[in-house]
């Protein structure tokens, strides 16, 4: 009997492990919506602005890396990354996040995403309890999903995760192993955790014996106010695993991120990375290192801040002017995202597909994917870093009209 390609694929996928059925695809696939017309405005992306990439300087850095190391650059090298780069990163986290670290506390990874995955691999057996912010970064959930944890939800407040709610949760679930947080300009809400909460989180980790995964790729992208010390800077007993990345402050295509943690944790993560990819491409890491030697990264970041600040301000102004009172929104001081909360009876996924994309030609990310249990339907994420101010104002006005008409309809 002839079988179609589709039937064949279904039969063969029965052989796949559970993690292939649940993980990355089901959550991340929902992030990238359909096509918009020529007047379309995309608030659904999560990317830095490519016009701000230092491409010529990076090209020089690649040449320098090859000129300096020659053939040796293309041999197998160190799993953890070049020691010079690890030292540069240790210096950087000291300067920008108040963390005391040496090169031995640093593991260079293929983006923050690999770092998250390695930490999940290190800590999570099936059924292990992980506390996550609701909402939280979908890529972390996609990674965690593969290890079959039990998720416990911690609500977000205007100054970061609700630490009182976490404390109550720890009393009833003392076996929580890991608390995952994005403390600076959180993805998807844009919220930043207060210093008091950062300190309390570390105290709780000591009292209840868990690890904190501090994931902070946006921390240098602050457009208003002053930088806060990292949670890791309050860590005295190796409870905090800190992750960051060059994706948002340099270029995501470099696929270069890093972990800062106690040596014992770094050594284990290094072994796990080795079983996964042996090592990151040395050419990339030596080029990044040469870039840092020969350019002022802080100056590059400072130059980007003006563009992003103008875009954030344009978005907040437009939201204030055009959104109906029934729509609440966050007021971030940095990062890439603003989070909208609509009336409870609105399903932002259906709204996107039925009204906002076809009629207003606007895209956003419906909020459901950012919840571990995918049980909240009335939130949505807007990106402002990839859209210019004129488009932001026009796009938010169009979105507000669509939301106003629709929320009136469904209420
Ligand atoms: C909170 C958060 N963590 C980690 C990542 C992973 O980024 P990358 O792997 O490019 O460093 C992202 C990317 O959007 C993110 O938003």
Give a brief outline of the structure.
With 411 residues, the chain is an alpha/beta fold. It has 14 helices and 14 strands.
What report would you give on this structure?
The structure is a single chain. By secondary structure, the protein is of the alpha/beta class. It has 2 domains: 16-53 and 299-410, Alpha-Beta Complex (Aspartate Aminotransferase, domain 1); 55-296, Aspartate Aminotransferase, domain 2 (3-Layer(aba) Sandwich). The chain has 14 helices and 14 strands. It has an 8-stranded mixed β-sheet, with helices on both faces. A 4-stranded antiparallel β-sheet has the order 10-11-14-13. Helix 12 (297-322) runs parallel beside helix 14. The longest helix is centred in the C-terminal third of the chain and has 26 residues, at 297-322. Residues 46, 111-113, 137, 139, 182, 187, 215, 217, 245, 247, 252, 257 line the site of pyridoxal-5'-phosphate (PLP). Its cofactor is pyridoxal 5'-phosphate. Belongs to the class-I pyridoxal-phosphate-dependent aminotransferase family. Keywords: Aminotransferase, Pyridoxal phosphate, Transferase.
Key phrases:
four-stranded antiparallel beta sheet, 45% helix, pyridoxal phosphate, eight-stranded mixed beta sheet, 411 residues, Aminotransferase_I/II_large, pyridoxal phosphate binding, alpha/beta, single chain, Aspartate Aminotransferase, domain 2, binds pyridoxal-5'-phosphate, 14 strands, Aspartate Aminotransferase, domain 1, 2 domains
